[in-house]
Amino acid sequence: MKPVAALLFCSVCLLTAWMMDGMESAPAKPVILRAQTWMTVAESAYTQTHSSPLAPDGPTDAIFFSPSTEQIDAMLAWVKPKQHLRYIPESWDCDDVMLEWIVLARRWAIENATYGAPVAFAAFGAYVKIFPGAFDGRAGPSGGYHALGLIRDSDGVCWWIEPTGLGRFKVLEAYYEQTIEAVKIIW
Ligand SMILES: [Ca+2]
Questions:
Q1: How many structural domains compose the chain?
Q2: Which residues have CB under 8 Å from 79's CB, separation 6+?
């Protein structure tokens, strides 16, 4: 069995095992997850962000759950009141807000979507360079370095998440508009 096929087979086994294991204490509503391997998630991110693939620097998990856009918006609403958003130079600026966002987004997933299933949430961080016009013009006239969330939805579309509350923006649109340039993905 090829490594990719073996990984897919194992992932199906894992999900099946989890479903069987959780039958006695299953949630009231059935949980339907669309899971992808890390290679699929990484390929989406690299193709759409145009950042340089670094083979050993891929996601640390093997199987990912990619949310619908409705779930992304629900996650953002859940995360926002839990964030520390008071700007403090260096000690709590964009990179720190981005790291906190990743943790809160993944917590949303285990508490509201995956319910203990052995699949990671396809939410990551990235260091980027932004240019005037970014975030539908709400970034102000000046550009510079910034830190953003990166999330892959269930259709394979990648979104930049501005973690201070400006919302989600299609990675490919920002690329073609030349408003956001990926520097490094933080898996
Ligand atoms: Ca900082």
A1: 1
A2: 101, 104, 105, 108
Q: Examine residue 20 and state whether it is found in any structural domain, yes or no.
A: no
Measured distance CA(114)–CA(14) in Å, rounded:
13
Residue 8 lies in a domain: no
Between CA 90 and CA 84 the distance in angstroms is 14
CA of 182 to the centre of ligand 1 (A): 18
Measured in Å, residue 93 CA sits from the centre of ligand 1 at 5
pLDDT in tens, the chain (187 residues): 334 443 443 343 344 334 434 445 555 666 667 788 888 888 888 889 988 766 567 788 999 999 999 999 999 999 999 999 999 999 999 999 999 999 999 999 999 999 989 999 999 999 999 999 899 888 777 789 999 999 999 999 999 999 998 999 999 999 999 999 999 999 8
CATH code for the domain in which residue 130 is found:
3.30.460.70
Ligand 1 center–CA 57 separation, angstroms: 22
In the block, which residue shows the tokens 């962000």? Answer: 49
